[in-house]
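> call design_seq(struct)
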């Protein structure tokens, strides 16, 4: 396992998926930052005008790894919101809107990703492509794309052979490759949902929010991140339980429009 532990999900999708959307790239990037503990989620309970009714608000703040994380340009559309004040908490839906506003449009976001140190040798442009924001894969890029897709296939097959949540290998793998787990194919998604829930519990136990009436014991999983991201940007499609993010088959797992 080489590429899935080194490349961000955004880099992998731009490299391997021809028709990736801005929504997909922002969503999987945001979730990856949460999985890597660069950002973190807290839930705050606040009473409404009806005293017997309590409303739960979800906030995003910096995680334990924020200061040490070597971020890439496409990740900074979210991270820069905390650069001037790392103590602030931003409402979940607002950080989603910030990501869309700062990334501008798909061509700008892809440009940031393509210029990353890992991918800059993978793409080139002729004069016509520069005008219409197009790119073509170089020989280096074609070779890397083949290797990455093979690793996705191999690792997906490896995970598909795991039939017990007690298998620590699956959980340790997710810790290494982060949200790239949702790009793998041939996965038993029922098992993945179980692993996802266990990781959500672990994340909240080890990275709870101090202050206020935050809900540090809440179990947050990929579906929670996904549905809240969609609601924050006004999308009408969520994250299917039985669809992946990788290859050329679409990105149901990351939530397309």
């Amino acid at each position: 396992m080489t590429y899935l532990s080194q490349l961000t999900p955004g880099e992998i999708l731009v490299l391997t998926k021809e028709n990736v959307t801005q929504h997909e790239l922002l969503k999987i990037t945001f979730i990856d930052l949460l999985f890597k503990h660069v950002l973190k989620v807290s839930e705050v309970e606040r009473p409404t005008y009806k005293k017997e009714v309590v409303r739960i608000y979800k906030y995003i703040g910096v995680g334990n790894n924020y200061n040490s994380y070597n971020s890439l340009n496409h990740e900074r559309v979210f991270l820069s919101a905390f650069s001037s004040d790392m103590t602030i908490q931003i409402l979940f839906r607002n950080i989603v809107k910030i990501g869309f506003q700062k990334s501008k449009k798909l061509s700008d976001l892809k440009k940031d990703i393509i210029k990353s140190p890992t991918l800059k040798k993978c793409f080139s442009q002729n004069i016509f492509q520069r005008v219409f924001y197009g790119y073509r894969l170089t020989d280096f890029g074609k070779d890397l794309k083949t290797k990455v897709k093979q690793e996705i296939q191999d690792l997906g097959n490896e995970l598909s052979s795991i039939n017990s949540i007690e298998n620590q290998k699956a959980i340790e793998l997710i810790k290494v490759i982060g949200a790239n787990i949702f790009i793998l194919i041939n996965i038993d998604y029922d098992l993945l949902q179980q692993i996802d829930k266990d990781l959500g519990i672990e994340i909240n136990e080890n990275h709870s929010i101090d202050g206020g009436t935050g809900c540090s014991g809440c179990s947050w999983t990929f579906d929670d991140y996904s549905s809240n991201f969609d609601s924050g940007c006004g999308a009408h499609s969520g994250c299917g339980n039985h669809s992946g993010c990788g290859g050329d088959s679409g990105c149901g797992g990351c939530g397309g429009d």
